[in-house]
Design goal:
Layout: H1 10-13, H2 18-44, H3 47-67, H4 69-81, H5 84-107, E1 111-113, E2 116-120, H6 121-137, H7 142-157, H8 160-173, H9 188-192, H10 198-210
Antiparallel strand pairs: 1-2
Helix pairs in contact: 2-8, 3-8, 4-10, 5-6, 5-7, 5-10, 6-7
Length: 212
C-alpha cells in the first residue's frame, strides 16, 4: 500500500534536534494558539482597530508559516512515508473547501464569521460530513481508513481557520484577493490558505501513529 512504508523514526535520525523531540507539543501549542488568536480577533477586537491589529500580527505569521515549516514538513512527509502523505492530506483540504462552497451556496443561511460573508455554518457542517465520508469510502487499505478519517476531521475542523486567517488579512488590507494570478480565484496564496496547518498535522500524526 502506497504511503505505508516505514523509515527510521525521525527522533533517531535527529537525536540532538530540539524540534524533532518536541514537535507534537509544538504543533499542538501553535495550532491552539492560532485558533484562539483568530477567534479573539473575530469576537473581541474593536472594528476601528481591527486593521492595524491584524496586519501587524498576520504578516509575521504568514511569512513564517509559508516559508519555514511547510516545505520542510512536506519534504519529510514524502521522504518518510511516501507521496501519499502529501497528496492525500492536500486532497482532503481541497475536498473540504469545495464542499463548503457547494453546501454553503445550496443550504447556507447562517453566517459563520463576519470577516468571510460567504462562509456559512451550513457550509462548514456540510463540508465536514462530505470530507469524512469521502475519506471513509475512498479506495484505501482497511488498515489506513481510520487514519484517513482522522485526517479528514482535522481538515474539516481546524484547516478552515487558515482560510479565516487569510480573510482577516485581506479584510484588514482592503484586498479582495492576494493576487490575480488565477482568474476568478485570486492568487496562489488564496488557493492554499487552508493548507497552512495540514502539513504540520500530517507530520505529527504520521510519526505519532503510523511510523511508530
Amino acid at each position: 500500500m502506497i504511503g505505508m512504508s516505514r523509515e527510521e523514526p525521525l527522533e533517531q535520525t535527529y537525536e540532538c534536534s530540539f524540534v524533532s523531540r518536541t514537535y507534537r507539543a509544538l504543533f499542538a501549542t501553535c495550532a491552539l494558539r492560532f485558533c484562539n488568536w483568530v477567534l479573539s480577533v473575530l469576537n473581541q477586537c474593536p472594528p476601528d482597530s481591527l486593521g492595524s491589529h491584524v496586519l501587524h500580527v498576520s504578516w509575521v505569521h504568514l511569512c513564517v508559516l509559508y516559508t519555514v515549516p511547510q516545505p520542510i514538513l512536506i519534504y519529510h512527509n514524502i521522504d518518510q512515508g511516501g507521496i501519499f502523505w502529501f497528496l492525500f492530506p492536500s486532497m482532503l483540504v481541497v475536498c473540504n473547501d469545495i464542499a463548503a462552497y457547494v453546501c454553503g451556496r445550496r443550504f447556507g443561511k447562517t453566517k459563520l464569521v463576519s470577516l468571510s460573508p460567504n462562509k456559512t455554518l451550513e457550509g462548514f457542517i456540510g463540508a465536514l460530513v462530505v470530507t469524512v465520508l469521502w475519506a471513509f469510502i475512498a479506495e484505501l487499505d482497511v488498515c489506513i481508513r481510520f487514519h484517513a478519517v482522522m485526517m479528514a476531521l482535522f481538515a474539516s475542523l481546524i484547516s478552515p481557520f487558515g482560510g479565516f486567517f487569510a480573510s482577516a488579512v485581506k479584510r484588514a488590507s482592503g484586498l479582495k484577493d492576494f493576487d490575480e494570478f488565477i482568474p476568478g480565484h485570486g492568487g496562489l496564496s488564496d488557493r492554499v490558505d487552508c493548507q497552512l496547518f495540514m502539513a504540520m498535522f500530517t507530520f505529527a500524526y504520521y510519526h505519532s501513529f503510523i511510523a511508530s
